[in-house]
Every structure is written in C-alpha cells, then in structure tokens.
C-alpha cells in the first residue's frame, strides 16, 4: 500500500461518511458539517491526483493544487451562506427543523410572509 | 513505502470524521471538526501540497471552525426538538448502504488510476519563466488560470451579497453581530492589543513570499482577517456598518482592478487577462496587492454574518 492508495481510500470513506451524515442527520447545521466532510473527501482525491502528477522537479501537479486552494475558499463562502440562511430562519420562525411537520415553525413563517 | 505517520493521520482523520457524523451533541461534533481540519492540513503536507496545507489550516480549520461554533451555540436550543426527528432504522440502513456503495465505487476508481499519471507539471515548468514568479501555484492562479481566480473573487463577493441580503429590513445598513461586552482586563483584550501588529506583518509576509515560495494572498488575507476578528471579539472595535462606503470600496477593489487589468490585456496583449510581454510580474503583484485587502474584508464579512443591529446615528 502506498501513500496514494492510503489517502485515496481515506478520501473515499470521507465522501461516504459525509453522504451518510447528510441523509441521516435531521439538523441543517449537521448537514452542512457532513457536506463539508464530503467536500474534503473530494479535495483529498484532488490532492492525491496532484501528487501522482509530480514531474519536472515539482512535488505535485500545480494545476489541481491551485484549484484546491480556490475550492477551499469557495467552500468556506458556501458554508457561511448556509449558516447565515439557517440563523435567519431560526430568528424569524424559532425553528431550525427541515421537516414539513414542524407546525409552529411553518405557521409562523407563513404569517411572516403574509405580513410583508 | 508508507510511513507510520501517514497511516496514523488517515486513521485519525476517519475517526474524527465518524465522530462529527454520529455524536449526538452538535457542539461536540463541531469541536471534533476543528482537530479534523488540522489533521487534514497534515495530510496535505504528506501529499506535498504546502500551499494547500496553509489554506486548509487558515480557512478550512480556522474560519470554518469559528463559523460553525458560533452557529452551534446560537442554535443550541433547537437541539432537543431535532433529536426527535432522527430517522428510523430502515432509513438509516438504506442511507448506510447507499453511502457504502458510493465509497466502494470511488475507492475502486482511485485504486485503478491511469498509469502514468496525467500531469500538467511539465507544461507549467516550461512556461513559468514568462510569468516572472517562482511559485508554480501562484503562476497557475494568477496567470495560466487567472480566469478561475477572478471568478472565485467574484463568487466570494456574491457570497457577501447573499449573506447581507439575509438582514431584516430594520437592520439594513447596520452592524453585523451582537455587541461584545468583555472585561477590559480580560486576557482576550490583551491579546487583541498585542497580536494584530504581529499578525498583520505575518499576513503581508505570507502574501509577499507567495510569489516564489508557498504562501499567497488567500493565506495572507486569512491571517489579516483573523486579526481583525480578534479585535472585534475582544470588543475593542465594533464590526463596521455594512452601509460604510470605504467598506464597499475595499470589497470590490480587488475584483474590479482584476477585471480592468484583464481588459487592458485584451488591448495590449491580445486576450482578456493576458499580460503584456515582460510586464507579467508587476501585473501579478498589482492584482494580488489589490486582492489581499478585498479578500481579508470579504472573509471577515462572511464570518460575522448579516447586520443584526440598526446603525445608531449620532
């Protein structure tokens, strides 16, 4: 087993764990957390591919590495927007549930929409 | 051959990832996510991606961790209600099976990657001299794939617009975050007075050295952003009101200058974002220097969220 295989398998399991968390955890914040795990798994795959492409005296292929830097920054921005949406909804309706059955929340939300 | 350290990093990464998925308490999950981010930084180092490791430590573990901890503590009251919604065993098993299937497919693909590995490194090595910078990643980010970096800066700007648009009407134009009340003799206040001058110098150094060595504007901007956040958290300075003109000018300075120089390239060098011969290095330095403050302010504003208090006019 070499380092590519080790981190390749780690990345595959990270994607799977994130996917499981995304489906099973009912809380939106936990879903964001799980989605970050999936994202990290994809980044790790990208890093493995970059490291395999080491050539011309470089320790890795700089093109996927540069893409990774871009990806990490953009995923932070996406997480920040998701957290912002969550907190705003909580402030407005007092609930953070995604299920359609959370009556108090959806009722209040409807009232808020109508009052605008 | 594989070292024991790489193996340990892989195992610990997966253990912490499992922890963040299965632990009951959200705060505990977020607390696990931060050491997980730092371990991921070590994984980038093992994979010889030092620039990525710097970005991950600063943004992936640092800023994302701070963002999620703040959200977890504010959403703590919803925790009990959410637990009742945990899906039944059948759905959990189905989700587990689907996730396992995805994992197996990805793992099989990764164990059968093409040999020899496709790489663009020789192309980068051949053309890097034309950019005047020594760090191949900076050359890719600011020259070969400058359009990606431009679009990223614009995507971050849209992120800020999206976060700001979540403000309630009454708070529009006001200040983000709640007022911080901290004892002036607190150690946090002391650190917020001592660290920022050092941090800002380190941030600018990381940015400057990025031309030839690992580093760059993203990593430097995050260090500067962290210093500003420290000052805000200690209550020494409040978050700026989002209606401030200087704030908006700094926000768009980097992307705007990037676009202007890109258009200039269309006339002087024959293509959008192309640099005139012999001028690549100064062009890149000017774009990066303009992006640094824009990125620092963007990251801070993404983290502190939409305005929550109306601006008090005195």
Keywords:
heterodimer; A: mainly alpha; Helix Hairpins; 79% helix; B: 314 residues; mainly alpha; 3 domains; two-stranded antiparallel sheet; 12 helices; 2% strand
What is the 3D form of chain B? globular
The residue fraction in helices of chain A comes out at over 70%
Write the element-wise H/E pattern of chain A from the N-terminal end onward.
HHHH
Count of alpha and pi helical runs of chain B: 12
Helix segment tally of chain A: 4
Task: Please describe the biggest sheet of chain A, giving its number of strands, its sense, and whether it closes into a barrel.
Answer: none
Number of self-contained structural domains of chain A = 1
Secondary structure: elements and pairs:
The complex is a heterodimer of chains A (116) and B (314).
Chain A: H1 3-24, H2 28-52, H3 62-93, H4 103-115
Chain B: H1 4-22, H2 26-46, H3 50-74, H4 79-83, H5 89-111, H6 121-127, H7 136-144, H8 146-164, E1 175-176, H9 187-209, H10 217-233, H11 245-268, H12 280-304, E2 307-309
Antiparallel strand pairs in B: 1-2
Task: Describe it.
The complex is a heterodimer of chains A (116) and B (314). Chain A has four helices and no strands. Residues 103-116 of chain A have low confidence and may be disordered. Chain A has a single domain, classed as Helix Hairpins (Orthogonal Bundle), CATH 1.10.287. Chain A is mostly helical and 116 residues long. In chain A, helix 2 runs antiparallel to helix 3. With 314 residues, chain B is an all-alpha fold. Chain B has three domains: 1-79, no CATH class; 87-118; 126-314, no CATH class. Chain B has a two-stranded antiparallel ribbon with strand order 1-2. Chain B is globular. The chains are: A mainly alpha (116), B mainly alpha (314).
